[in-house]
């Protein structure tokens, strides 16, 4: 019998991809207004998002991890902007201008950040029957504002932000904390997420059944990660969960 539902936030409950795209467009416009038309502003915005999602080269990792650990996520993102613009052969921008660009992205993304259609009703229905725990990876700097933006605490019972924990998904420790909060054993829970390695791999390692929200992602079988159930889009979750709860 299922007693709890563990849920990822980004791309599972919320359309982060849409919010990112809107923010990238506005960041590109702002960057062009500061740097001029010689800047490939779309490429700059794309590279910025890759950077904040830690899609780094080994050299970038050596540069940015100490900044994050010794200073803050905000300082890292401002430095990332300055580095990208120099790499794209722009005149060095001031820290103030880089901060303006970083603030622009955060403001626009947060304004556009919201649940996928139908998810609020889904959470309301599920909460009547199970304990709901959100487990989201990411730095406190970005995840806390997103949680607050959608008033997530009004829709679920517990929220775990990976950046506030010792380890993030797929580490067993974060799933163990979710089990403690829910007061359940692993066989009484199912975890839903879009990340094959962090969500499904993490659930597998903790002997928790899983639902992969695929979003047309390729399924790399060489990873040895197998979800128990697959849906293509979050709008399929209500029907699946109704079947599992029968």
Chart the SSEs and their pairings:
Elements: E1 4-7, H1 16-35, H2 41-52, H3 58-70, H4 73-87, H5 95-112, H6 119-127, E2 131-136, H7 140-149, E3 158-161, H8 172-182, E4 189-193, H9 196-205, E5 209-213, E6 229-231, H10 237-244
Helix pairs in contact: 1-2, 1-5, 2-4, 3-4, 4-5
Identify the CATH homologous superfamily of the largest domain.
Answer: HAD superfamily/HAD-like
Report the span from N to C terminus: 10 Å
Number of strands: 6
Describe the main β-sheet briefly.
6 strands, parallel
| The CATH C-level class name of the largest domain | Alpha Beta
Percent of sequence in beta strands: 5-15%
Shape: elongated
- The CATH topology of the largest domain comes to Rossmann fold
Mean of all residue-level pLDDT scores = 97
Structural class: alpha/beta
The CATH architecture classification of the largest domain is: 3-Layer(aba) Sandwich
User: Which residues sit in consecutive blocks of at least 5 with pLDDT less than 50?
Assistant: none
Number of helices: 10
Query: What sequence of helices (H) and strands (E) makes up the elements?
Result: EHHHHHHEHEHEHEEH
Instruction: Give the number of domains.
Output: 2
Instruction: Give the C-alpha Rg.
Output: 19 Å
